[in-house]
Design brief:
This protein is mainly alpha-helical. It contains 19 helices and no strands. It is globular and about 55 Å long.
Length: about 425
């Protein structure tokens, strides 16, 4: 199951970056305003909000396989719609297509929970990290393929900026096929079967604060009863704390990421340079995931979350101080921002996962990612307005102040838990 999840993340990763790399540039070109350049990111992050809600509920009711497969298929459909909108120069088609494209982004992130379905509690963060790491190859390759996909689009008589969305359509389609055909048995169903209480009693037990059940089943369920004997009992600081940890990393990170390509383009840098900077950022978002998972499992989620806020603040301050023509400094700032986001996402996910009974939290996980998408959409929408009003430096300083709020939140939760 983990191998199938990894394979699907590898191919879907190329779809994850299409909107990030050229979304703002596409809006600036088609809408004719830098102030509106954040709209595409706001739309596909808003679409990821709706996608997380739908996919989360579908996973809860039907399982991970139909939920994730459907999410990727919808993302592929949205990618095709963006290509058609750019080819026809139709803003009215572009905007809803970006919204639908966001479902693929939501599905890519929700897949991390599938990695934790069958993991023992003390190894869940590492399982999440492995699935996130799998997205790195495709996500890093995607931005560097912008010139190539642009040439391909031009050869087909389509504007070059539509090229990355052609690649996204292919990647999301491949992920949907892989999951639908090969993710058997369904990990969410198997996690439920391994609970030491009958399926019909699990929800009632969870609502009653989770007794461990009799543990008198047979077969594979007995093998995991010792590590899941108190799995239905919420532990740790709770879902709300985990969600806030992720939100305070998502909003400033998305805002900074959205306007950096526009900032670089305004200072004379081409799509090749922009693609390289975004590639480094995407690599930093996913590549540290195994190490982050290990640190989270061993040190605890809250110390890692506190570090994420401080590091993201430093990254934003570096972006504010960097000259517009200094690609190395801007690249370093975005790389640090990606690492900080990874720390916040993995630690926040660990907090949420620990607070939910195994096999029965997919809907809550989806709702948490709805909040994540709302934060991203808000950051993207405000980013263009902030740059128009006060410049890129002003945006970066606002991002630094927002990110820093995660540190006292995590430290206070840690003290309360102690």
């Amino acid at each position: 199951m983990l191998a199938v999840l990894v394979a699907s993340q590898l191919v879907s990763g190329v779809g994850l970056t299409a909107g990030i790399v050229v979304g703002a540039l596409l809006a600036e070109q088609m809408l004719g305003s830098t102030g509106l350049a954040g709209i595409p990111t706001a739309l596909f992050t808003g679409g990821s909000m709706l996608g997380a809600l739908v996919v989360g509920r579908l996973c809860q009711r039907r399982g991970r396989r139909p939920g994730l497969g459907t999410g990727y298929a919808i993302g592929a459909l949205g990618s095709v719609g963006v290509v058609a909108a750019v080819a026809l120069d139709q803003v009215a088609l572009l905007l809803p297509s970006l919204l639908v494209y966001g479902a693929g982004t939501a599905t890519n992130l929700l897949a991390r929970y599938a990695g934790a379905d069958l993991a023992a509690p003390h190894r869940r963060a590492r399982a999440v990290g492995r699935v996130l790491l799998a997205a790195t190859l495709g996500a890093v390759a995607g931005p560097n393929l912008v010139p190539l996909t642009g040439d391909l689009a031009r050869a087909w008589g389509i504007p070059p900026l539509a090229g990355p969305f052609l690649l996204a359509a292919l990647g999301y389609t491949a992920a949907a096929v892989l999951l639908t055909a090969l993710l058997r048995p369904d990990p969410l169903h198997l996690a439920r079967a391994r609970l030491p209480v009958p399926e019909t009693d699990t929800r009632a037990d969870a609502n009653a604060s989770g007794g461990s059940g009799s543990g008198s089943g047979s077969g594979s369920g007995d093998a995991v009863d010792p590590v899941r004997k108190d799995a239905g009992r919420p532990r740790g600081p709770g879902v709300a704390t985990g969600l806030w940890i992720m939100l305070l990393g998502q909003l400033p990170k998305v805002a900074l990421m959205t306007m950096t390509p526009v900032h670089l383009a305004a200072n004379g840098h081409g799509t090749g340079t922009i693609g390289l900077v975004v590639s480094l950022h995407i690599a930093a978002m996913f590549l540290p995931s195994p190490l982050t998972g290990l640190l989270t499992d061993r040190l605890g989620a809250l110390p890692v979350a506190a570090a994420s806020g401080a590091l993201l603040c430093v990254a934003a301050l570096l972006a504010a101080a960097a000259p517009g023509d200094s690609v190395p400094l801007i690249a370093a700032a975005l790389t640090l921002a990606g690492i900080a986001w990874n720390l916040g996402l993995v630690s926040g996910t660990a907090v949420i996962t620990a607070a939910l009974p195994p096999g029965h939290g997919a809907n809550t996980q989806g709702l948490a990612d709805v909040g994540l998408a709302v934060a991203g959409s808000t950051g993207a929408l405000l980013s263009g307005l902030a740059v128009t009003a006060g410049g890129y430096d002003t945006l970066a300083l606002a991002c630094a102040l927002t990110a820093l709020l995660a540190t006292p939140l995590a430290l206070r939760a840690a003290r309360a838990r102690a």
